[in-house]
Amino acid sequence: MEYIILGLLLIKPMTGYEISRFIKVNLSMICSSSAGSVQTAIKKLVADSKIQFSEFVENGKNKKEFFITDLGKAEFSRWIQNPMQTEKVKNMELSKLFFLGFAEKEQRKAAISGYISQLEAAKNNLLSIKKSGEL
After folding, report:
1. Which of 65, 71, 74, 81 is deepest in the core (most CB within 10 A)?
2. What are phi and psi of 130, to 5 degrees?
3. For the domain with range 2-82, which CATH number is right: 3.40.50.10260, 3.20.20.30, 2.60.40.3880, 1.10.10.10?
4. Which candidate, 36, 35, 30, places its Cα nearest to that of 3?
5. Three-state SS string across the chain, please?
6. Where exactly are the structural domains of the chain?
7. What is the number of alpha carbons within 13 Å of residue 88 lying toward its C-beta?
8. Residue 8: other Cβ atoms inside 10 A
9. pLDDT at residue 123 above 80?
10. Based on C-alpha coordinates, what's the Rg of the chain?
11. C-alpha to C-alpha distance for 66 and 80, rounded to whole angstroms
12. Dist CA 120 CA 112 (whole Å)
């Protein structure tokens, strides 16, 4: 969550609500968009001096707009340069593989074949992005 917030704040300063909303609309498949998760990460980033905030009043409400610091930029840069590691990706759907023994043989085959097809489609999508030079 912390790196997602750092990345978003590289794009532009945002309020906590804007960060939560952006994650909910655009990144909900990657991480939780709960206000608690976002606020916990924001508090840690502020405490670690990776982000700061300015306060303002809008429509009678006190608001905080967060922005990334040089320390936060350096931390994000270190993180983004590390290779992606598929074995560290957490996906609750993979727990189905663990319990497939409870399914009929044909259901197991279909589930595994379907998952392989999805992985192949994701691979092809990444290869097309790489080929187009977008990476």
Report:
1. 65
2. -60, -45
3. 1.10.10.10
4. 30
5. CHHHHHHHHHHCCEEHHHHHHHHHHHCCCCCCCCHHHHHHHHHHHHHCCCEEEEEEEECCEEEEEEEECHHHHHHHHHHHHCCCCHHHCCCHHHHHHHHHHHCCHHHHHHHHHHHHHHHHHHHHHHHHHHHHCCC
6. 2-82, 89-132
7. 4
8. 19
9. yes
10. 20
11. 21
12. 12
CA 62 to chain centre: 28
Tokens of 32: 């939780």
Q: By the 8 A CB rule, do 73 and 37 touch?
A: no
- Which token pair is 70? 């040089």
> Residues 52-106: pLDDT tens digits?
999 999 999 999 999 999 999 999 998 988 877 766 666 667 777 777 788 889 9
Measured between alpha carbons, how far is 110 from 100 in angstroms, rounded to an integer?
A: 11
- pTM value surpassing 0.85: no
Question: Residue with structure tokens 């290779």?
Answer: 83
- Maximum distance among all alpha carbons in the chain? 62
